[in-house]
Amino acid sequence: MLKNKIALVTGAGSGIGEAVAKLFAQNGASVVLADMDMDGAARVLAEIEKAGGKGLAVKTDVSKPADCEQAVAQAVNWLGRLDIAVNNAGIGGPSALAGDYPIDGWDKVIAINLSGVFYGMRYQLPAMLKNGGGSIVNMASILGKVGFPMSSAYASAKHGVIGLTETTACEYATQGIRINAVGPGFIKTPLLDKNLNEEQLKGIAAMHPMQRLGTAEEVAELVLWLASDKASFVTGAYYNVDGGYLAH
């Protein structure tokens, strides 16, 4: 589906980003793995190469515009262009009521989860225009559509990602660039495991009509479709992959 495409995936060293990078490589793309965690990125790169794929690991802090610019530059320097970008890197942030929320926690979540998506697109879009188009997939969340107590920064950032996606999709719709957002439900990833104990995970799973958490691979399948030419008339869309969470 992605034969001869060059893709950039942020947060590719674990979780959903890892699953996306591997699936892209399996489908013929050359993948730039952008992550702060170079050990994780190197591990994913080794697995991609072992399976016969092609990749490049780049140390990237998406909260820094210069790092986002450099990641795009490395993709272009590596293979001449950028066709696909997945702005996936994110953090959960503190859990607190808005009236008690730590200011530094708010700033960090917004910097990575929202500004990081903007910084990524700020440099991905000009690169894609040079080769006549491309596809961008931004990782939002079910919390980009609904609130969730104790998560004001995360929900605000993810709501912002959807607004940013819709706006930029309209801006570039006639220039060959499609921009969409994906909204995972609660997915079994290291991020979730780090923040919740087993009892909490069971409670979260029960909030989904399917009565389970999703997997990173299930999200990656949707991202693959949106990134590919099979989704050629899809832009400005938000697709939730959430086991029915938003339906009830």
- CA radius of gyration: 17 Å
Termini separation (Å)?
Answer: 34 Å
Annotation, overall tally of beta strands: 7
* Continuous helix count: 8
Low-confidence stretches: none
Helix content: 40-55%
| Named CATH topology | Rossmann fold
Major sheet: size, sense and barrel closure? 7 strands, parallel
Integer tally of domains: 1
List the strand order in the largest sheet.
Answer: 3-2-1-4-5-6-7
CATH class category name: Alpha Beta
Beta fraction:
15-25%
CATH architectural grouping: 3-Layer(aba) Sandwich
Apparent shape: globular
Structural class: alpha/beta
Give a quick set of tags describing it.
7-stranded parallel sheet, 248 residues, Rossmann fold, 46% helix, alpha/beta, 8 helices, 16% strand
